[in-house]
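User: Hey, quick favor. My workstation is busy. Could you predict this chain's structure for me?
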Amino acid sequence: MFPTRRRATTLLFGSALTLGGLSVTAACGRAARAPSEASDAHAKAAAPAPVRRIALQGAVNVRDLGGYRTTDGREVRYGRLFRSGSLAKLTPADLRTLAGLRLHSVVDLRVPAELRFDGRDRLPHGLAVTSRPVDDTGLFEAMQSAVATRDPAEQQKRLGGGRAEHRMREIYPGFVSNARNREQFAATLEDIARDGRLPMLFHCTSGKDRTGWLSYVLLRLLGVPHAAAERDYLLSNTIRRPADAKVNAGLKKAGMMRDTDLLRPLQEVRESYLDAGLGELRQEYGSVRRYVSKGLGLDGKTVGRVRARLLR
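Assistant: No problem, here it is.
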């Protein structure tokens, strides 16, 4: 019997979430050094920061956004903001680890299709999730639909020839141009500025695109240089690679995909993807600060509170 579309989604996402924490994260609270970067005008501020990866068996790409240095020598606080992939497959041990972070709020950026297939977040008792879906331009459904065909020719037709990369580059400009997306990002930044909302964790399915964009914008808003903020964005590739490889091996073994390299552009983050969003941002607003003030509608007092809560 051919696997159902739900089976395809489970292989693509469920297995990654189950295996990823064991494969790619360090012990909770243990620091690892981020990769070094090319020098730039703010080399001292952009020096690699210790990256705190949170070890969860049922989630991938869970990490603390703290530790990055700003151009004026301040540091982003640890233990205030966390980024992650889906939390739908957390184990009882994961829930205890998450409880230890003393979170006050969780923001879920996934769209309804992702919730239906992957499930809602599993969270420690008493912790509620705020759903703020950011449009993925139908990518999730398109990817799991292509895999579910089990047809190499059809998969090549849908994902090959640069089509997967094109789909990814289409998503990022919408983080800037789509008014509803801007509202969701703005509401999350406003939450950070409010009393009692931190520590906060925000996530999407893989924790790399919508989560990556919001993390980049936040770090830049705080004064972290572009090179360091981009490095944090690209770090998802290193963290997710073992889990994605196991997913791809599972798809091959199940006979669902012959050429899993077709999925690589969808599983990775790339500079060209971020550049597509930043190109739209520069065209519409000129800078990250104006994107935040004009596009997201955050006034100076709100931005000041965000900085005060997250910098030391």
